[in-house]
Structures are given as structure tokens and as C-alpha cells.
Amino acid sequence: MGTVENAQGGWRTNKWVRAAIPALLLHCSIGTVYCWSIFSQEIADYIGYTKGAVEWAFSFAIFFLGMSAAFLGNIVEKDIHKSSLIATICFAAGMLLTGVFIMYGGAHQHSPLALIGIYISYGFIMGVGLGTGYLSPVKTLMLWFQDRKGLATGLAVAGFGAAKAIASPIMQSMLSGLSSAGSEINGVGNGIYKMFMILAAVYFVMMFLGHLLLAKPADWHEPQNDSEKPKIMDVLKTKPITNYIGIWVMFYINITCGLALISQEKMIVKCIGLAGMAGLISTVSAIFNAGGRLGFSAWADTMKDRNTIYKMIFILSIAFTVLVMITGGIKNGEGNGLLIFLVLALIFVVNAGYGGGFSNVPTLLSDHYGMGSISAIHGITLSAWAFAGLTGNQVATYIVNHSGEFVTKVDAAGHEISVNPVGYQNVLFFTVVMYAIALVLCLTLVKPSGKAAEARK
Asked: 202: domain range?
């Protein structure tokens, strides 16, 4: 009997079982939101709308991710079981309803109800699941892994980034494998809505298991009474408020610049003559994204000041952006091995820095403001993600559509593709200025924290 009790006690107090594994189950599920580009054109064709109209569903999902994290951070702070259950239900229900409205849109072409239903399901309902699911395991991980907080949060957030690389080939296989013969509408089979319905069930099981396993250490007391805990603004004011503003803005800029380049990545790759390798390059960039989340945050554990990581991210991003700008790598890259290398290096560096920015922000905030209200503060900070989700893609698209000129090229398979080499190149002028602003904020407004702050005392 004692052996059984010891075994039960062992897994109940095991940081991998109670924090790392459930975090991966939650983040590997919700991270599939980044698979949107795989099926967005198919959704548009199936329901009879343009891709541009359907694309807003993804923008809404990212916006409501950030806003739900900001407004529901206190719920996460008080009760991770309630917040992880909300995440599970909302994410799975949103995915299921997205499939239902796609099915309806296929039967009722150009239906406003179908499009609005997708906006609400994929954008709002799934967005709430994304925000609460993203936040729920982060503080728990830092509590269990006190000495390696960066490694722990990086592991979970890497799961969010790696989800695209893992799920993309599965989704592509499902799109064709689930389609019934003769079911095509506008060239797209009914596998598109079946995929959403099946994955809704799969991700519900994964996330519900994560919800059941997730638990804070038994010796951690979470104040349930609001009077026991200081107000968020009081916590932020323990340091100059410009310190937090600097963190929020540089986080926003890093996401905006990342999304601006990543949203054009597929077309940039085609522009430099690598259309046949676009899928492989997308997978490699997703690996860099996940690797940046884990690598940069684990590396930060060894540094006196975690803010050093952001300085490195911005300096590297500026350096590679300037190299591609000076050489005209995107517009002159086709057939030039060196320029192709520089463009791919820029894509991979930006992806790594984009991921690293996400994984380092909770630990940076905990170094500055402590663990007491970290979920709520992290949640408010994720509002930067919400606004970046509405600006990064849209600004890049505007620059591409209003500068340069679209030209038609023929890829290796003989397919015609329309690209705007000068437009993609011009996006870099926007990102390099933004990265420079972020670096200045990083150097001036964000004060030393952690070991560096202690060393100055």
C-alpha cells in the first residue's frame, strides 16, 4: 500500500508531469493556429469568398488571443484549472464551429452568415481559448523550475512554435485524404470541413489531459482574496513606469516586424527562385522559430540580465536586414547563390528572434516584478500581440500592394506566379526602422533586472 501511495505522490510532485507535459499538450494544440496559411485559400474557395476576406479570421484570432490574455489574466492567476478548462472548451468548440460554418458556406455560396460564423468561431471563440491556454501553464512552469525558468517557459512556448511544423503535413494529408469523390466545390473537396471537426476532437482530448495534469507546487500559496494581493498598477510602479512601457513596446515591435516578414515569406521564397522548396523552407523556418523560443530563453538563464537577449535579437535582426537591403537580395536574388543565402538567413534569424521574444517576456517580467502577479502582468503584456496581429501583416501587405510592381514568373514546375520583388524589398525599410526603435528602447528604458540589478546594489 505504501508503495502505491509513494508512486502516486511521486507523479503528483513531479515537475515534468505537473508542469512540462501539460504545458506541451496545451501549447502544441493551440499553436496550430499558425497553420492558417495552409488552408486559408481552400476555405475561401470552398465558401466562395476572396482570400483577403477570409484572412481576417486569423487576424481576429491573434487579436482576441492578446485581449483575452489581458482581461482574463486574473482568472489564470487565481485558478489555472478554471482557465485551462476555459481554454480547452473554447479552442475545441471554436475549431468545431469553424468546420460547421465552412460546411454551411459550401452549401450556400457567398453566404455572409458563413463568413461571419468563421470570424466568430476561429477569431473570437478560438481566440479566447488561445489567450487563456497560452497563459495557463507559464507561471506554473516558472514555479516548478525556479532555477531554470527560461528553459521551462521556452520548452512550452517552443511547443507553440513547433506546432506548425508538426501539424502542417498532417493537415495537408487530411485535406486530400478526407475528401469524398465528387465533393469538390470550386475545386476544393469536403475534406476541409471534416479536418476541422476531427481535429477539434483530437485537440480537446490533448488539452483536457493537460488541464487534468496541470498543477502548481503544493507549497505555493496563491492569494484568493483580492485584498491579499497588490493591484497590478502598484506592482508596475515598483519600478519607473517607463520600464514597463519599454518592455511592452519592444515586445510589440518584435512581433510586428516578425509578422511583417513571415506573412510575405512564402512569396519572397518564390521571388528568389525557390518556389519548389517553399514547403521545406517553411518547415525549416518553423524549426528556427521553435528553436529560438527554447534556445534564447535557456541561454538567458545563464545571463545576469535577461534583457541582453532582446539586445541580441534586435542587433542580429538589424544586421541581416541591412545586408539584404544593401545587396537588394530579394529583388536581385534569383540565380545568385550568395544573395539567396542572405535572404534565407534573414528569414531564419527573424523567425528565431520572433520566437525568442515570446519565450523571454514572462521571465523578464518576473525578474522585474516578481512572481506574485506574473500571470496578470504577462496577460496585459500579451495585448501587444493583439495589436501586432492587426498591424504586422496589414502594413506589409499595404507596402507590397502600393509599391513596386507585380510581375509574372514561371516556376520550375511551369506554373505562373505573380510576385512583387521591389515591394517585398521595401517591407525591409519598415522593419529595420522599427527594429532600431526597439533597440533604443531596450538600451534606454528597460532597466537591469535579476542578477544585474543585484550586482549594482
From this structure: 14-215
Q: What is the CATH number of the domain that holds 110?
A: 1.20.1250.20
299 inside domain: yes
Task: Report the chain (457 residues): mean pLDDT per 10 consecutive residues.
Answer: 48 83 93 87 93 89 92 85 95 98 96 97 96 90 86 83 84 89 88 96 97 87 63 87 96 96 88 85 87 91 92 97 95 90 96 94 92 87 91 89 86 76 95 97 87 50
At 339, is the secondary structure helix, strand, or coil? helix
Question: SS3 of 361, please?
Answer: helix
CA pair distance 357, 11, nearest whole angstrom:
32
Nearest to 61 by CA among 379, 378, 385, 293: 385
* 455 part of a folded domain: no
| Rounded alpha-carbon distances, angstroms, from residue 343 to 375, 433, 440 | 37, 18, 25
**Cα separation, 26 vs 308, whole angstroms:** 29
Tell me, yes or no, whether 382 lies in a domain. Answer: yes
pTM over 0.90: no
176 and 255 inside one domain: no
